[in-house]
Amino acid sequence: MDEYIGIVKIFAGNFAPRNWAFCHGQLLAINQNTALFSILGTTYGGDGRTTFGLPDLRGRAPIGAGNGPGITPIRQGQMLGNDFTTLSTNNLPPHNHIISVSETAGTIDIPVNNEDGSADEANPAAGILANTGADNYSSEASPGQKYGGQSIPVNVSATATASMTGSGNSFSNIQPSLGINYIICLQGLFPPRS
How many domains does the chain have? Predict the structure, then answer.
């Protein structure tokens, strides 16, 4: 059965049948394959004067050439994709990292001197806590009693850091696949144009 020149097929054998060649990107002489060159041209390589290239489908999956709504335009002979990919921060969706800051209890000591002295001294010696004419004591406990009414400002600061994560290693980008040969027809029927 004759095939059209330039037809590519999957072949499960480990050899290319007569009048066929593996699609391994090899260069062929134009003067020995004029019919195939008139179909392929230099789409897959070659200098166009003495050589032209066959498609190289080793480690690649074929994809339809052309363009259309919602798809990336693909030129015939264009090679796309990579076996491995490394993501950068531009490839990640917006996200936040959680930072944990723990609460720590602390105490503040305020020394108050309690020494003997006169309650009517203008400048009490040794920092005596006293007011002229006021009772600074109570015979009964009073939870609302407060001395001095002073506030002490306290500055509290904490340092929190988020550590780096990830290693930046590349990962395989290959779909589940099976190694098999693609072959191209070198000699046969010349395909008529519609």
Answer: 1
